[in-house]
Amino acid sequence: MHACAVSWINVLFAHGTISALEELPQFLTEVRRGKPPSAELLAEMHARYERIGHSPLLEHTRQQARDLEQRSGRETRVAMRLWHPKLAEVVSDLTSLDKICLIPMAPFSVEVYRAAAEQQLAQLPAARRPQLRAVAPWGAHPRLIDAYVAGIVETINESVPVEQRAQVPVILTAHSLPSAVIRGGDQYQQQFLATAALVAARLPQPVTTCFQSQGADGGEWLGPGLSEGLKDCATRGAGPVVVAPIGFFAEHVETLYDLDVEARAQAQALGLRLLRVPTVHGDPGLLDALCDAAEQAIHGSTASD
């Protein structure tokens, strides 16, 4: 581990989530790039948040920041891309002499998060705007792959008899994106599939990939969707099926509802038993990946300023 410079501060930069239901209309408007949600969408999302009780994304990310700070010896803060606390708020005490290492908690979308960070920092006066350096995509870090594999193996071993384990299908999921984004050159799909291939190579089970949590506005989105993956498993006669959300690093509405409620109900209707792998939000392998990504960005030759 390199000795850290006092002027560098890590910032974990996550998607964002509400703290109270009354924030939901404004949050959905921001997620939808200024387009207010329809009454139907608002009611649906309100019901989802009520069903899960609370999205722990912010709490989990703050715990990850505390753990990373302890491990790296470098101050680590938390900001959100699409909700509060925004990056400009989080660094409001800094100046142009300070440096922040941005660690997007979406390793397949580093450039998107970096652009959002630059946009948020642009709101600050030049004298109060810290220097920004973003980490490189980090979703294929070996210790992160270790964590994914360990979680999948543990889930299977806890719930499936020994003689059936090698036949249990595993579905690796990440958030879907509009296909137009990928056609525009975004590397998200390519990076996710590369990470998924590393995980699949370590497992004896049949492994497929799916994209979940497609947006509500229609249009063409990355597929196959998770519902298609579950139907395929049912067609092949599978009993238990493992779903591992390797595109997410904390529990939130898209795991607690989209997987644990919606996908579980669909699996049951298809005669499947869905075994859901928890996110790696507290795994030491995740911390190792975050730590190494930051160190390489700050001290390595491939960091992007």
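The above is record 1. Record 2 follows with the same two-line structure.
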Amino acid sequence: MASATRLTGGCQCGAVRFRAERLGRASICHCRMCQKAFGAFFGPLVTAYGVVWTRGAPSHFQSSNVVRRGFCERCGTPLTYEYDGGTELAIGAFDDPRVAAPSIQVNPADLLPFVDGLSRLPFRGAGDEPEAENFLRGVVSHQHPDHDTAVWPPEGARHD
């Protein structure tokens, strides 16, 4: 990984931001706890070293006797998997998730049977669903941009 790579990220609303000094192994975890914590089919995590919270700090949920999970209390974004051996950060929370391409899958006992076929599902093509395309044209994102900002939310922005 190039030393110029910024290992920064944060939650969807921008209330919690982080920086990591360096990254270790990136993985896809199929355990049921990760499925529930991420609200997804698996949990993409990377071991992180020298994590500094640059805006706010995560809230925590003790998901087991040995693991606590950090998340943004305001928007719910999953951020960390913390245990005595260290901290793992949610790959999708990085400003550039490409910095942590997974190299291994773990906890296959809870692997959902359809996950291996996801890459073979068809994509919706342009013009296939005009109503959906009309809807998407009207979407205006209120999520934090994928870079550090001096102030968030912007002056006058609604932030419930």
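The chain is about 10% helix and 30% strand.
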